[in-house]
Amino acid sequence: MAIVAQHTKFSKIAWPVLAWVVALIFFFPIAYMVMTSFKTDADAVKPELLFSFTPTLDNYANMTDNYDYWRFATNSLITATFATLFTLVVSVPCAYAMAFNPTRATKDILMWMLSTKMLPAAAVLYPMIFMTKSLGLYDTKFLIVMVLSLINLPIAIWMLFTYFKDIPKDIIEAGQMDGLNTWGEVREILIPLAWGGIASTALLVFIFCWNEAYWTVRLTTTDAATLSKLIEGNRAPEGLFFGRLSAVSTAAVGPIVVLGWFCQKQLVQGLTFGAVK
User: C-alpha distances in angstroms, 179 versus 92, 164, 185?
Assistant: First the structure.
């Protein structure tokens, strides 16, 4: 009994300590980036000044005064928001149809959609650039919204399909007996019951859209450029200005961190949806 008690006591101490160690290891790059953003470019490349340095806001002032941060941030917010909305508008009815009116081809369609995520983006880069320039869509917010929506649709449909499958079909059939049409079933039954799953899907899609760098950097120049383009633009023939780059990166990461903090309840609810019957 004494051995069991000691083992239990050790586990209660060891696991939290291990969790903190792992968390600190993952958090250190972010903390280092934030600290570097308050250093001058000269101090940022000196490892001996990891903690002992004089903080400065020059990098943030330079970011807003000379790099027009707010224009890039506004473009990121607009494209990510509209791409998320469009993705939900398409994925909710698609997942509804597959969950409650499946056919023999449903699984094949789901696997095909998932397989599109395995396509190397570089393989279709030049055709995309050529086509969008020919259509006059290059460097437009409309193009970025469509691209972000399409690359995130498979994930959104898969997530929503999983959430919707946990809703008893009898509830939907009861709504049909009460005279609800398809839109009524979605609005009155599906959305309220799967709100946690829809919210978590929307949050993850928004984060993916906000963080997307490959397409937003290569399909924009100035008008529709997002924060990813601003970060990529902090390269110069003289090298990387780590202080300025860290400030821009911190300003780009900050909104997502704050959003995730305030929406963590919806995220956890959505990720655990259907886990407990």
Answer: 21, 21, 10
Same domain, 103 and 25: no
106 lies in some domain: yes
259 and 196: one domain? Answer: yes
pLDDT one-digit tens code per residue, 225-256: 999 888 887 766 556 678 888 888 888 888 88
pTM: 0.83
Residue 94 within a domain: yes
**Cα-trace Rg, the chain:** 24
Give the chain's residues under pLDDT 70. Answer: 1-11, 47-50, 235-240, 266-277
- Helix ranges (H only) for the chain are 2-36, 41-44, 58-66, 69-100, 106-115, 125-134, 141-165, 169-177, 182-185, 191-193, 195-211, 214-218, 227-232, 242-262, 264-271
The number of domains in the chain is 2
What CATH number has the domain bearing residue 107? 1.10.3720.10
